[in-house]
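Why do we care about 3D structure at all? Because function follows from shape, and shape follows, mostly, from sequence. That is the central idea of this module. The next example makes it concrete: a single protein chain, its amino acid sequence, and then its structure expressed as tokens.
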Amino acid sequence: METKTSAGVVIWLTGMSGAGKSTIASALVNRMQTFALHATMLDGDVLRTGLNSDLGFSEAERSENLRRVAHVAALFCKEGFVVVAATISPEPEHRESARKIIGADSFVEVFVDTPLEVCERRDPKGLYRRARNGEISQFTGVDSSYHPPTHPELTLRTEESRVEECVDQIVNYLTRTRRTLNLV
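And the structure:
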């Protein structure tokens, strides 16, 4: 199968831990590849074990973490990739900074809107339990705030929609707004 060339785009998935960002990101990358597009996933948890392993969770370190993720995303985007970044990005300033670094025309903010109680019930890594037991501090949703986007390009409600439906919503959005992606 021949790979198509396209203008790059960054799909920035934001939401709390357990919202479904990484699951959706992985499925979206797979779908983009079925369209013969270069696509990659930047998972916040994975990047924190390598590229950003020197950073903690203070406000300054969270900002630096997301600045680095945005710069990596921008590099892939400039090469024509569909980049799916799955990060909590709890503050509006983090998301706006990423939009500026990447470029507003190439940035698509997607809010993975999942109620806290659903995220806690899912808790695939046991992080909420550990945060509630005092083993983890500054955990988003427990003792650190998450400020939802006020005007994301797209909102996904994972409590109501299956993963494939969420991916369909993103693909439909991209088809309507990003003609250069050749999603046909």
